[in-house]
Amino acid sequence: MSLFKARDWWSAALGEGEEFDQGCLCVGDVDNSGTGHDKIVVGSYMGMLRIFSPHANKSSETGIADAQLLEVQLQNAIIQVEVGKFVSCSELLHLAVLHPRKLSVYSVSGTAGNVEHGDQYQMKLVYEHNLQRTACNMTYGTFGGVTGHHSLCIQSMDGMLMFFEQDSYSFGRFLPGFLLPGPLAYNSRTDSFLTVSSARQLESYKYETLAVATEAESRQDPDLPLKTGGKRLMPDWTFVLGEQALDLCVPFFSHSSSSIFILGERNLYCLRDNGQIRFMKKLEFNPSCFLPYASVTDGTTNLLLGNHTNMLLVYQDVTLKWAAQLSFVPVAVRVANFPELKGAVVTLSTDGHLLCSYMGTDPSFFSTPKVDAREADYEQVDAEMKKLQKFIREATRTQGRRLLELFIFFLSPLSPRLTLSLFSLQVTVKASCVVQSSKLTIGVQPPLAVTQDQFVLEPMDFSILLYLLFSGVPRVLQSRFSLPLALVCVPSSPAKTTNFKITVDTNQPPVDLSSIFREFSAKSEDKDGNSLAFQFLSGAKVTVLASKTSQRYRIQSDSFEDMWLVVKELVQRFDQHFSKMGVKDFKKSFSGPLPLQEYFLSVDHHFQLRVSAQQYQDLLSERAVQFRAIQRRLLTRFKDKTPAPLQNLDTLLDATYSQVMALAEAAEENRALLEEAFVRLRSATHLLVLLLSLWQGLTPDQTAILEATLLPLLQDTPQLGWEESCDAAVSHLLRSCLSRSPKDQATSLAQTGGPVLGLPRDTARLKKHITLLCDRISKGGRLTLASEANVQVPAQVQNLAAPGESGRGRKREEQREGWMGGKSV
């Protein structure tokens, strides 16, 4: 940040949505007024050409309109504009406009107005050249030492230099070893052209060498012999830069100085006319543009240099003399003389911000006003203070809160005839500290969906959602909430015969189900409260039956996965009901056996869909390779000058395309089925974890460990699936806290790394490990993450034990806790 800013003298915003670049700005007496005052010519990539004559203190809308002499919409994009003597037999200045495929030369003239509207300016086309190649940039000068008028040289995108002498085309030459175009400049002192090649070196070509070189009709291989007369084009001298050049300039303001300036990406170079280096300046920023101009000290050159930090720097050779702050990144800079200001700095940004400024500082004429020495009215001050305090209290009540409303609905792709259930949810976000750029994310599990899952909050005075520490590290707070059961199911008639049944035992007398599920009791057919049926929007039906003689509840359904939500809701509502009644010794249990075979059906179904997805992917890859091979052979046949029979390649191409489309549709359908199968598998896993926790009376921490083991992923990915992730997690528990002997448990600690997870061949190993996990837990196994530190480590892995802790001490600790080898003592 500079201490001083560039002093604005005149500025204008050019259009909306237009783009500008380095060659879109030039200054000069384009209307040949004879006063020596410059005009600003600006062209844009949208084809808009504007000419300005700035005046002091006229940066308002009316001032910009008065300063604008001309505005013309051309048909093509404007790449570069230059002012020079481009018309033969005329000493007047003309305007050259370079388009991608055209070079146009205009004359700009002004007519004195007889009314208050001022002078009128017009632009007439003198001549134009249609280019056979796409242009990149151009330069002009007195080529060949001819005085009195300027010739033009245009560099094309494919490396051809096209020379024009007024309204006639002279010749064209291809640059050797060309790959990409670079900056182009003409040195009149040596009558040579300078450019930076793709080899990142500065090359100099004399005009005489270009004129006698091989005629450029088409690009030729430099290794092949010449087909026509003439010499091979070679540079007179080269200078290796080692970086890409942004701009190239040869100043002519002093006959004593013979310098060539090159602006690189990280360095500034100054060379002599013969290619010898004068000095080099390493830059500590990313430059954007530069311009050499005359210095008051003999033997030195001043430079204006803009960078991407909105700075305009003034150098005298390699010494920084001044730094000024701009309000934008300049892409072009010029120095102009206006009637009220000599040596104004003209800068242009990429979005059309045109600024005329000067260096220096303006004195401040502000003086502190005198304060009236009158006595304060304390009653008035006290009333104003109470009014302000009341306003602050009212603002505090409403400030820092954001009320967001979103809708959660149920997606039922299998039952499109059912009406989707819609639920409105309001989220209130409060604030306790100043926060910026906070975001609220709502996440629900399929088949539920939200209308809007992310909210970008406005800056809040207080917030607990997202806050930043003093170190700048973002922190996130999460809040979980349960949605009502009525969102996904409706009351229905109980089913008498079902395929799957689960029984939950309690130690309290039977409870009326209508009092537990009040939102479903009004529409239930059973008035005694002994049975209640739920029908999900997907079509599945779950029935809850309460025993009249015992303390048991049966949940039954034709779908094993759909019972989880009802069982979970039933257990939670039992806890809430007996907690309100003051019962402290309420217990619920599951007598078993665990429905592992039913659970494994969901596992096998999900695994088969994953295998099918992999097969579809392989088949698609094969057909795609075949399709591209047929395309290449057909293209070769079509390009052949001698027509040949297609040999049914077109029929084979159509058949392959049909196969690719059919496989893609089948893969997409399989992907939808795989997503549905994973949702069902997740529900079945939740049900298994719940039954296992009820069966063995697991604590909440142990239940969380078990749930994280059996549900390691939130969703399947092609790289990592549920089967391999779950198998790795279960195997870790079996080798650590659920191992049979301390030796196996300690050996698992010494294992580092493991095989890369991938799609298994079958699910037999996974089923075996899950069955073994349930068996170990049923025999008294304890789920804990800290058990690895409570075993006796063998001698070969003693280095993994904690410092100062021996195996004998750990064994005594195990005996005190009544736990050895995963079983109760």
UniProtKB/TrEMBL annotation:
Ranges of Basic and acidic residues composition bias in the record: 807-817
Keywords linked to the UniProt accession: Coiled coil
Residues covered by the PTHB1 GAE domain: 424-461
Residue span, PTHB1 N-terminal domain: 1-363
CC annotations in GO: BBSome; membrane
Domain of life: Eukaryota
Coiled coil: 657-684
Residues covered by the PTHB1 hairpin domain: 593-696
Keyword set includes Coiled coil: yes
Protein name: Bardet-Biedl syndrome 9
